Protein: L-lactate dehydrogenase (cytochrome)
Organism: Boletus edulis BED1
Amino acid sequence: MPTYNLTQIAQHNTVTSCWVIIRNKVYDVTDFLFDHPGGPQVIMGLAGRDATAAYVPIHPFDALDKHIAPEKHLGDLDQASILELRQAKKVQAKTRDELRVEEALKNRPPLSRIINVQDMEETAKKLLPYKALAYYASAADDSITHIENARAFSRFFFHPRVMRSVSGCDTSSTILGYKTSIPVYISGSALARLGHPLGEVNFTRGAYKAGIIQMVSTNASLSYGQIAAARCSSDQPLFFQLYKHKNDTTAAKRIQEIEALGYNAIFLTVDTLVPSNREMDTRAPHYLEDFENQGTKRKSDSKDDQEEVDILGTAGGLIINNDNDMTWERTIPWMRSVTRLPIIIKGVQCVADAVLAAEAGCDGIVLSNHGGRQLDYSLPPLEVLYKLHEEHPEVFKKTEVYIDGGIRRGTDVLKALCLGAKAVGLGRAFLYAQSAYGETGVVHLVRILQREIRFGMHSLGVRSIDQLSPEMVERVDWQPALPAKL
Amino acid sequence: MPTYNLTQIAQHNTVTSCWVIIRNKVYDVTDFLFDHPGGPQVIMGLAGRDATAAYVPIHPFDALDKHIAPEKHLGDLDQASILELRQAKKVQAKTRDELRVEEALKNRPPLSRIINVQDMEETAKKLLPYKALAYYASAADDSITHIENARAFSRFFFHPRVMRSVSGCDTSSTILGYKTSIPVYISGSALARLGHPLGEVNFTRGAYKAGIIQMVSTNASLSYGQIAAARCSSDQPLFFQLYKHKNDTTAAKRIQEIEALGYNAIFLTVDTLVPSNREMDTRAPHYLEDFENQGTKRKSDSKDDQEEVDILGTAGGLIINNDNDMTWERTIPWMRSVTRLPIIIKGVQCVADAVLAAEAGCDGIVLSNHGGRQLDYSLPPLEVLYKLHEEHPEVFKKTEVYIDGGIRRGTDVLKALCLGAKAVGLGRAFLYAQSAYGETGVVHLVRILQREIRFGMHSLGVRSIDQLSPEMVERVDWQPALPAKL
Amino acid sequence: MPTYNLTQIAQHNTVTSCWVIIRNKVYDVTDFLFDHPGGPQVIMGLAGRDATAAYVPIHPFDALDKHIAPEKHLGDLDQASILELRQAKKVQAKTRDELRVEEALKNRPPLSRIINVQDMEETAKKLLPYKALAYYASAADDSITHIENARAFSRFFFHPRVMRSVSGCDTSSTILGYKTSIPVYISGSALARLGHPLGEVNFTRGAYKAGIIQMVSTNASLSYGQIAAARCSSDQPLFFQLYKHKNDTTAAKRIQEIEALGYNAIFLTVDTLVPSNREMDTRAPHYLEDFENQGTKRKSDSKDDQEEVDILGTAGGLIINNDNDMTWERTIPWMRSVTRLPIIIKGVQCVADAVLAAEAGCDGIVLSNHGGRQLDYSLPPLEVLYKLHEEHPEVFKKTEVYIDGGIRRGTDVLKALCLGAKAVGLGRAFLYAQSAYGETGVVHLVRILQREIRFGMHSLGVRSIDQLSPEMVERVDWQPALPAKL
Amino acid sequence: MPTYNLTQIAQHNTVTSCWVIIRNKVYDVTDFLFDHPGGPQVIMGLAGRDATAAYVPIHPFDALDKHIAPEKHLGDLDQASILELRQAKKVQAKTRDELRVEEALKNRPPLSRIINVQDMEETAKKLLPYKALAYYASAADDSITHIENARAFSRFFFHPRVMRSVSGCDTSSTILGYKTSIPVYISGSALARLGHPLGEVNFTRGAYKAGIIQMVSTNASLSYGQIAAARCSSDQPLFFQLYKHKNDTTAAKRIQEIEALGYNAIFLTVDTLVPSNREMDTRAPHYLEDFENQGTKRKSDSKDDQEEVDILGTAGGLIINNDNDMTWERTIPWMRSVTRLPIIIKGVQCVADAVLAAEAGCDGIVLSNHGGRQLDYSLPPLEVLYKLHEEHPEVFKKTEVYIDGGIRRGTDVLKALCLGAKAVGLGRAFLYAQSAYGETGVVHLVRILQREIRFGMHSLGVRSIDQLSPEMVERVDWQPALPAKL
């Protein structure tokens, strides 16, 4: 293998010749620039330089092999350059944000003090690097839908039934025929390694240990192969959340890889065609710049008078190749033609589309607005579920219906199930759990929910999940005053 | 009687041989470990040691005689050991929480300044040991139901009637045929001695003096015998709140004892089969640990990485032997077979169960969600009462209906009575009153309510309780802005 | 006239012989003790002593002549005693509250800065002695009705009409046939002299100057004779707010005096039979005690352990002789038999009673809950008006309908008039205006309202009051977020 | 030209002879005093003195030529006086408010950090002179309608549609046949030069660059001639917002000038007949007086005891000559008789008037309550639009319907368009944008909205504006909790 030094590499910093260093290896990424999901400008910002720190936490380990042709793996950095980089890194003072995180980790509460989902979120938010926090926590525009997703649950009250035999109460159920210890799954979410070095594997192992099912995102920070390989048992089920590439051939290749790796279902994401406006994420670079420079004067900025609007956040780059022309007529039959896996539509946001999905023969529907991260003022999924139950109860017989968004309590899970949902997904909550406590946090979160679900079942007078029924829930005409922290 | 020293006793600290010291006496509680309502771990934490301080405030005086076989009453602590314990106690500095309470007691306002129920609550909250406060004040999950119980009353407004003769207005009524000065009773509540050394006897004496009726909890911190003996007159009525033991024989024995002691009715509690999630109570040990160690470093905790979820609070241990398989068909006839006392179902939370209770021939129903301490998002009792009145008015003719939860004002009492309730129960309010001012506080609280009820009757244009009618109340379609302190 | 010294007088301090000094004169009030509207204990607190400071601001000048028989006017204080009292008064330091008021008066904003009703209230609240503030501002229980009275207006929005000729817009109207510059009157309120030395006369003169009508309360701090004498013109109309004495003869005498003095209508108050629970007023003595003793230790209080509940406030004493047995059948015909003045019922709080009042042939109805000072959770008058308009529009043809409570803006007045009210009353707002600026404040307040009403008429597309109509108002189904200060 | 000195001019300070200096020229304005739209007192406050600083920022450059007869242009100030004025100005310290603005400008964030409409508003509010802020930001009475205009949008949620082909999504549309890059126009607003020296021309140039249309107010701080002359291309469309003068001849002259200058439509303003109560604006002089005199004692004020109520703010003076007697029958035909331009009625506030406007043959309707600046409690335009759509859908076929008030997000625009609006207007937002960043700010604001609109269209499943439909929007029965800053 040839070796290169920093000076040589630094000269390749243009769109016509763009090299980068990653983990002391040198790559020519010129041809890939315009295929990069985040657009070429992201790479150009690092052209001719060491890109390791920026690259590693948000890309699967096999991304370079997959996307950069072998002949563009130019060779290694020479020893002198390696030492120079290492030295530079040592000299470089820790950032204020890194110091903040270090201090926070020292004060991390013992897991025994985490007694509900909210505790987990609050704890993780203190521990996360700001960039990760901004990506995980951000939601669209004014976060109305993000907040209303959760608030919707507060308008549904119970009619608990008493004097019913409930001993031996069992919280287990199935999703697409696969057994689960509680009717909850880990919803697909990107970039788990921003929060914890082991990333999505924490979900894989935690899910196995706790008896629930993980959905793996196309945008996971580990490759779907790595995650499949991390399964604790050959029959541990895994679901895949697909962002369909606009090129059908590319998309078909991915689907077939997934099927070959033993994934058990495909959740086709239909609510995320283009990057949305997640302002916390967009503002994160500004926030960090100000945080690091506290007390010093902001340098003038060449962008000061620009008229164009950038979306700068972490999220922006993940989805620019998504297919914007999917239709019920074309896309579902095409998917059936390339895979035998069950197909679930994730991102249905109104009753009409739920009906169309069922008519199109989908195996499941996720009523979801992407956790309030896409279109603000999309109706809360629980409200859509309630309407669907009122207006088209036949849908629940044709297909399994799930919801995600805003679930924080066992009572939330039970409300959704009473109204016809087969299971519910949690995304951010599991991201927070693994960020703060790794695999153990994931298991702990399931235990919390299981305890709350079991208690709720006792109180509602049921001893198995299938006894939950719509009569046990009432949509009230007032709005409870929620705890301030929500 | 043999005597033992501390060293001897300390050796019996395992599940196969477990001794404890209580009030300078030595008990072998090995056989009882797994019958303890709070589970064996509670006792094991004190095994081989003096358990007096932890034991006394939350157990009736006769509990040891009742539950520990005579031969397991091993004997006395020897004199040297008694002195050693006493010395240790003297040396032991007062805790920060004890000092806080002492200071608060010095600033206790005179009773003349307590002019409403809220004042009483606020005063008591400042005076209570944190452990007691956490047990009394805590509610399920996010306290939504606890708060909404009270907030429900704010959506009901009056249609006061004028130009009606109201002189000689009389606030008295009856409950199950027993006379009461106002249509209010002291609802059963556990562990009154956590707040005041005389505990439940404050209720007994205060109720007599004020002319109202006390309901005694199975979990009272005095035995039901002691409370019965504290009656001020042989005909002072007393109600009993029964947590039915899962073993019918044990349960029957308790019921018959109750009847023999002269109790006048049994309120069978049906909403509390298993321990619920009361987070303030659960967090109390953590809170106190942090409070005592303020400014010092928390020691590392062996539970730091556990995945299981403990409920640590005071409440947890009270109910683990409750019958989880009661039914209308089985349990009511069985109770009729063991007692001639009136049977009231406490904890009905929806219209359907109220109808079933009436059909089952119960003598009364308490619409109650246990003060929001069991299932969060259980409908507020006042809303259930309103629905019951709208949908099944015949129930009020078949049986007496009571409600508890969220009552703080005479107007609250009147709203419930207009909608058909025969009387209302207050639990926490009386706990706070006796904690802050003993028996006198209990009487004062009744006087406050009586004054408010009488004024309300004047304003509504009625001169006796039975003139209250549904037309005097309207459920409005807006939510008043409540005072911040609620 | 005989004279007495302080030592002699001090001996008459029992219920069997009770003397007091008022304005250096000596009265034997023994026989009057139990006729005192505030009860004997109020006088007994001053027995054998100089009662001037407590007596003067809350009693009409002629009260002594009226209630104390001539032979009980014993004589004068001797010169030495007069000097002694004067000296004592000089030595006596000003109270903290007096100093606070003095300072506040120095910072009173110029009237030009008072641009709305809320400004007037805020300004006055800073200037008032605490006792006056507590009496004026207090409301029943938790002030829900007081707040909701105002909040009700916020749920009514306008349908303004454009392209209508509105030049020459005229805000004047009539009440019971008497001309008024705006459809607003000064509602009867007690104790104006607590806030300003000239008291109710500020209303009389201000009303004349601004062209509106004053209603005089039975509990005014000037006698109705004095107020009648203060009229600026012989044809200035005056209304009288009657609290009917339980003794018909006493009541008839008062009514006939009123008629003889030239009052033009009688507003019979029916919502205030007994003293209500106004907590700010009740707490005022405690508040002042703590305020004056700031930093010092509270002395122990003999009432510390009392069980009875006192209402200590200023309001309590005003109404204990009110007739609690008025009825439509008896009282209206009786009033017609003793007076030819128009009879208006003040304090109607529901539709049913409005209908009964109209059927009883009353000349007017005031939908009022006494400014939220009597029964908390009485429906807001605007809501009652709206219902009355929906359910019994014929009432508006039979009788004039007024409302009071919660009016702060010209738009509030217009909403009430659109829904059928003939005029609206303001009480507290005028109390605040005269307290802060005397007669000028009263005129200024009318000018503010007139400007707002005129602007509103322009915007609604009407040029005279009678063009206001129900179609211009809509009750919306959401609750606006009101400014924090409300 | 004759010259005058300061002493000579100072003598002409009465209503019978009133001279003022503006830009070193001397004018006799005696005859104009009572034609001044703000009333004579505004000029009299500057009589005999240099009025330049007060005059310039709020009057078009040609106002003197237009309103003051040539013979009243008396001549120039002499050189000595010019120097004296200049000297006086130098000596005069900057005001605290000027210093505050200077400091704020130094900390103005780069435009790249302005990522939504709210950011723009917040930034501008920090930079504006207080007088400008008070004029721009103020709203009627308690700002209820101003706030509810925005809050109304929060009650409308989307039914986003998935699996629809949306690539090539196009945000452009037309208004009255004129092309616009997004369905948004700059609504007419007065006095842009209060916020930026170039004033309305920033709108003209920014609108051209961003491809949208500007509406020019009668009360613009540049003349409509100047603004027309600033067009970037001869075919750049411009709309005119007309406040019709009460004198038809004066009004016709203005309309014909407008037409001759090439304006493309007339928006007749019908909701602003008389000055309204904008309290922030009214209080601005008091606020500034206190701000400048911080720490010093307020001088006593001759107005301290006045009873009359002044409206002192900037807004007051603009509209006192408006026609208060417009009607559908008279005014529309009259306008048709004097112009061939399309006529749009701006300020329709209820369904009934929208129907009448359509019947009167108007070319368009703006549902508007003047941004909440006129009648408080006027219904939010979005609610009127919703009702119009429900009750009179035919109106949308007869005429174009626009709305303004409360729009801050692309989603707001889309909601209005789904419900039938052809376009929406923003006023304050553009004032803030040009105040903070001039023309560039205007373009940036359009880019923000365009990005949000395009994203919303993608998410709703439409690729052109005309595919937006009522089924995509639902009015919900709860009120989202809005971000605190709203």
